[in-house]
Design goal:
Blueprint lengths: L2 H17 L4 H67 L4 E3 L4 E3 L11 H11 L13 H9 L19
Antiparallel strand pairs: 1-2
Helix pairs in contact: 1-2
Length: 167
């Protein structure tokens, strides 16, 4: 039996008791039976939630560990590439081909800015096209604080929710 079915049975039973459809001698036993089933089902679901939460946390920890390993490997790759590049350039090689690899260089251009803060100050005054801006996001913490302080904001309200806690 599903939890929502048990809850419906419980609600129907309470309504039947209030309507006088169930004899008084059957109320205690039936109520105890439905309550025990409901509590057992809720307890099982709570255990399942705790198990899934632990699994999700373990996955998150593994994701972080894998991200750290990936970043370390990427840094190692960059160091080795730089070492290979510097060595080949110092040796006068612009191309190198072996049975397993073909190594070559290509020219590229990149912008180097010596003082980023000074550049941003200069660009924001006269050359805004050299800057990019992020899209604004809603600061719900500030809105909540303002509403709690009595402010009224059109289309915004505080909602009270019941959040289940399983420990």
């Amino acid at each position: 039996m599903k939890l929502y079915e048990i809850a419906q049975d419980y609600k129907s039973f309470i309504e039947a008791v209030e309507n006088g459809d169930i004899p008084e001698e059957a109320i205690a036993d039936t109520l105890e039976s439905i309550t025990a089933i409901l509590e057992e089902k809720a307890d099982n679901i709570a255990c399942m939630i705790k198990n899934m939460t632990a699994e999700a946390e373990a996955i998150k920890a593994e994701e972080q560990a894998l991200a750290e390993r990936r970043k370390a490997k990427e840094k190692q790759i960059d160091r080795i590439k730089s070492y290979l590049s510097d060595t080949l350039i110092a040796s006068g090689y612009t191309k190198l081909e072996t049975a397993r690899n073909k190594i070559s260089f290509r020219k590229s251009e990149s912008v180097a800015i010596a003082d980023e803060e000074a550049f941003i100050a200069w660009a924001s005054e006269a050359n805004d096209e050299f800057l990019t801006y992020k899209e604004p996001t809603i600061n719900k913490t500030a809105i909540k604080k303002a509403l709690a302080g009595g402010a009224e904001i059109d289309g915004v309200s505080l909602e009270t929710k019941q959040n289940i806690q399983i420990k």
